[in-house]
Every structure is written in C-alpha cells, then in structure tokens.
Amino acid sequence: MLVPFTRSKSLAKSHIQRFPSSYPLTSTLSLDNLEVVAFVPGTRRPSQQAQCKRRCQCFASAAQATALTPPELPRTAEEQTALAKEALQRAEADGVKRQRMQLLLPIDARASNFLDTEPRDYPCSMKEEFEVAVKVASKILQVGGSEVRFRKIGERDQEMDPVGLVSTADKRLAAVVYPIAETLKQIQELAGNSPNATLALVNPQWNNSGQIVSDFGIGPWKRKAEEFLDTFRPTFELAEQRIGEASNIASTQGGVVRLLRAYPHDWQVFLMSYDGNNECVATYEERPSYAELERLLQEVRKTRPATLSALSTSAPPPPPLARSVAGPFTDDEIDGMDKSELRRALTALGLPTAGRLAVMQERVKDAQRKFGFVK
C-alpha cells in the first residue's frame, strides 16, 4: 500500500498511527508491509530534487484520497468539529500551511437540532454568531489538549465587524475568525511572521462572488489581494443552500442541500430530508454552482420523487385535515389553530410547513386569498 511522502518507514508508520482511518488495510497488514513513496537525495541538482519531491507528494496525496472512505454528513455540531479538525490535520501533514474553512454554525434552530433546515424568521445577532464561531474554531485547534488563546484583532473594535485570532500556546496553529477586508494587512503579517505555522481563515466575511471589488478595491490592489488569498487552500466547508423556490410559500418545487468538502475528498452533495435519510447524491471535483445543483435536484426529482417529498421541512408532514380545505377557514379559525393543525392545512394546500406560528398562520391566509378561499 502507498503512504504519503516521507523519508523513512518509521515516519510512514507514525503517519499511519496518527490517521488510522485513512488506511483501512493496516488492520489486517503489518505496518512493515508498506511501499513507501520516498524521496532519496542523491547526486541530483537541488532543483531536480525539489521537483521529485513535489511529484511524490502529489502522487501520494492522490493515492491517499482514493483509499479514504468519503465522510458522512455531520449530524451534530460535534461531528462537524471533529471532521474539520481531521481535515485541518491531514492538510497540515501534507504541507498545506494556509487553509480556508467555512463552518455551518450551530445557531438559531441548528443550536438544538443541527440537521434543522427551517428558514430563520428571527436570526441571532452578528455578535452571537461570532462568539459561536470562535468557540467552534477553538475546539478545532485543540489538538492533544493544547491550550488555545483568543484575542480580537482589527483596526476598529465594532460589534458589527468582530474579527478574532485563535491560536495555540506554541503558535503552531492559528485561525482568523470572521476576517474582513480591513484586516487583510494583519493577516499578511501573521502569515509572513510565522511561515512554518498553520494559519486558517474561518468563515471569511468578504464577498468573493462578483462584488469583491467593493471589498479590496480595483486594479493592482484587488489583484494583489486575490493573489494572496489564493494561497489559502480550502480544506473544509459545510454549507447549506436552498434550491428553487424553497422559501416561497406558494411553491412545492424547492429543496435544501448541504455541501460538504473535507480535505482531501471531493465535494459531496447531500439532500436534506425530514426522515433523516440525508443521502449523498453526487460528488464534484470543484464546488458545484447553483445552476448545477438546480439541474441535479430536477434529475433526482424525476428518478426518485419520494426522496424530495419533504426537502424543505425538518419534521415529517402531518396527516391531512379531516375536513376539506375547499371549505375555507375564517381568519379567527386560523388564528386559533396550533402548529399541528396549521401543518395539516398547509400540507393539504401543498405548501411548505416550516416556520413560526405567526408565519404559518399568515401562509394559510395568503393561500386562501390567492385561491379564492375566502368566507
């Protein structure tokens, strides 16, 4: 079997013992039964030696990714933290010192149920989001019981733009949490002052989807910023995306997916379902675009309609109302309904059943007005 680039079998054994899940065959084979992809210095020029080393590292990384079992979708915040920590360590072991991570924070409804996909009617504040992000980042950096320290950074100490630095006491690992464009210079200094340390950017707050010019300027300033940020390799991301019209109360064609990328694996797309069967339906080498995800859901809807029967809700759809919705409710009757009754009414109308009580009541009233069900 192949192991990542190393100079000796003893180091290869150490790598396998550090990441045992990466090498399932070692459970039945002796650690001596290895083919070590090694760089053996000889009479070659330094440039040839460096080229050989890079080739060995790339080959070993590809072989490692092939041998690994793709991760499952994290069902809890703790599982996400463990997976992100493992991705950071694997990337660091492969020489990736600058990393970028995007975490799905356990806030709002996800604080009690990490798989919840209901839209946020009353989202928490930026300050609360930041505090949760710092806690998660701190746990990711806690390797072997190492002490983790935190301090705020940035030119302005404002609640609307909090930025923090989390680092281990030995300064081997560090993470800038919620970095903004104004802290780019400090990030460059951190990277330059400790070139051998691993530095991660956690949940960057700049916009890199077409409006980055407003964050980093134009021309040479924008280009230099992009060139520097491109040195940070994405090693972990867990993101949620609503596809179609999942948030439209008059639509039943929407869906919710979660995207997962944990180094060294490709991107995985999971369809979120109320029954907990959050199936991985596709993998991509690059992060899929919205259009690609939309086409994917359309294809899955054709081939497996049952899979998408409740994508935009976090709980099983309740049984239909005993009475016909064709007999309209008065506003007073709707205001007197509890969530269970409202869900049955919305299910009968073919509408999403997620949301707070007042939102669900208004959804039923709007649907009755739209379809002419008015007393």
TrEMBL record:
InterPro entries per the UniProt record, alphabetical: Chloroplast_ADK, DUF1995, SAP_dom
One Pfam family from the record: DUF1995
Domain SAP stretches: 334-368
Organism superkingdom: Eukaryota
The protein, known as: SAP domain-containing protein
Species of the source: Klebsormidium nitens (Green alga)
Lineage: Eukaryota, Viridiplantae, Streptophyta, Klebsormidiophyceae, Klebsormidiales
